[in-house]
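Tokens in:
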């Protein structure tokens, strides 16, 4: 998108009726970022690290910084460079537990990154060697915890077993200036109990090693709301974390970090697609799993959907549709169900919500289908975890 000013519309209807786009359009809502960050600042008393991978759009990152978040959880040297380019004063935490030596070295020497996560002895040695046994490192041991309540399980790939974590914590205490213990309950975690289990696991490690870490990082996994995934309010998750930390009865409470991504940006993005063909309950659309709708494919997230009309009467009768993307690949299929008016047809537009998280990040240029059209809109997201009215609706639903 370059640095030119992003075009702005009052709402998606105005955007569609003005542009009548032939390609998928990605919309961002900066107000919704302000709302979610204010929520976390009010309800979480520790340090909030934004997980950059969730949405690395520069306008979004700038908005996150403008709303007061100055700490970033990154997974690659390119993410380090991206954030530092926007604001050189923010603090970077390299929380990917498997990094190459060059990235560690460059992050430490060129960008003053001092905070590194690891989940094995070999990774610790790599960090120490790449930084020339630096004495000012903050080392985070990531432990594996159950991801049973998450829509996307991360525990198979990352985290030291609690038994291995004991030795790692001792080594980090020896070599690091500060040490942290961290865990991740998995992406889109649907039960707050996962956080209490993770914190209890950290309690066990503290008991066995007699080492109270300087930092406890409860990671990310805070959920957003989707038509078929309606978690309890986020306040309950944060209250559960607070209660579980107090239950550890530590002589002095460590600093507490969290790494929200989806919960901060999901509602800020949506994609507008156009229907190319309707075959009964199948809608062929101009974006798909190789575009911004990856999560609607394999992980089968159901995004909130609404028909955008030019004034034509919308049928009151809703029908369940499956979507098919524009590519020639049969994997380009989104099961849904997506509920839309029964009279929807070729040429109509649909807005799909909750795509601020991972939507724009996963796009490829497969088959030559690609669109990087991004516009700003000022209307409310289709669904919200932060809107009091919605909260009440789905609590009683």
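Residues out:
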């Amino acid at each position: 998108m370059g640095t030119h000013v992003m075009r702005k519309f009052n709402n998606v209807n105005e955007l569609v009726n003005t542009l009548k786009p032939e390609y998928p359009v990605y919309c961002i809502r900066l107000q919704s970022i302000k709302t979610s960050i204010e929520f976390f600042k009010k309800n979480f008393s520790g340090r909030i690290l934004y997980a950059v991978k969730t949405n690395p759009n520069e306008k979004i990152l700038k908005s996150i910084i403008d709303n007061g978040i100055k700490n970033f959880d990154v997974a690659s040297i390119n993410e380090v460079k991206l954030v530092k380019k926007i604001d050189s004063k923010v603090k970077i935490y390299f929380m990917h537990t498997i990094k190459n030596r060059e990235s560690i070295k460059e992050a430490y020497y060129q960008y003053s990154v001092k905070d590194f996560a690891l989940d094995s002895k070999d990774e610790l040695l790599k960090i120490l060697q790449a930084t020339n046994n630096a004495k000012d490192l903050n080392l985070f041991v990531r432990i594996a915890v159950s991801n049973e309540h998450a829509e996307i399980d991360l525990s198979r790939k990352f985290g030291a077993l609690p038994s291995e974590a004991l030795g790692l914590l001792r080594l980090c205490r020896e070599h690091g200036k500060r040490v942290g213990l961290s865990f991740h309950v998995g992406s889109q975690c649907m039960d707050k109990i996962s956080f209490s289990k993770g914190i209890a696991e950290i309690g066990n490690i503290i008991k066995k090693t007699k080492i109270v870490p300087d930092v406890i990082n409860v990671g990310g996994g805070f959920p957003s709301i989707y038509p078929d995934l309606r978690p309890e309010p986020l306040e309950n998750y944060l209250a559960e974390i607070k209660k579980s930390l107090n239950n550890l009865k530590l002589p002095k409470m460590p600093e507490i970090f969290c790494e929200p991504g989806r919960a901060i940006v999901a509602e800020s993005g949506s994609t507008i697609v156009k229907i190319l063909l309707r075959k009964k309950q199948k809608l062929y659309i101009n974006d798909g799993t190789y575009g911004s709708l990856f999560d609607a494919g394999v992980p089968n997230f159901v995004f909130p959907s609404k028909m955008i009309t030019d004034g034509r009467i919308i049928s009151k009768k809703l029908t369940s549709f499956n979507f098919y993307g524009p590519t020639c690949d049969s994997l380009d299929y989104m099961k849904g169900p997506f509920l839309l008016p029964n009279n929807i047809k070729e040429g109509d537009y649909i807005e799909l919500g909750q795509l601020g998280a991972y939507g724009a990040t996963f796009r490829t240029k497969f088959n030559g289908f690609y669109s990087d059209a991004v516009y700003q809109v000022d209307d409310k997201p289709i669904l919200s975890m932060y809107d009091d009215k919605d909260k009440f609706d789905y609590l009683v639903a």
